Amino acid sequence: MEKSIFEKILSKEIPSEIIYETQHVFAINDINPVAPVHILVIPKMKIATINDLEDKDMDLIGEIVLTAKKLAFERGIQDSGYRLIWNTNGHGQQTVYHIHLHLIGGKQLSWSF
Ligand code: AMP
Question: Looking at residue 49, which CATH number applies to its domain?
């Protein structure tokens, strides 16, 4: 199976600064930020979409969300607020088919569709 962009970042085939890493997850700054803070929290194991999650992935998803919270505190946006987003498939505008949680904040966000 072809490697995702995020697997290539993890294996250093594509340069990117890994800003946080544990045994199971890592985080990078989004290359095309939509806000002053725009971080992607990514499982090291490739799971294509949220649809592919199984019960065994519960701890992994918990770690991803808690990592996003930790990074929100590190960036000092915990009180001003932020948004966590999992885009899924076409209508969700997912572009990288390796799940990742967007942590977005540092400015007033809008909500329009
Ligand atoms: P999504 O549209 O939810 O699949 O999000 C994919 C995100 O990955 C987008 O916000 C892209 O800007 C981001 N992205 C793509 N390539 C890179 C890269 N090499 N380094 C950091 N972020 C990237």
Answer: 3.30.428.10
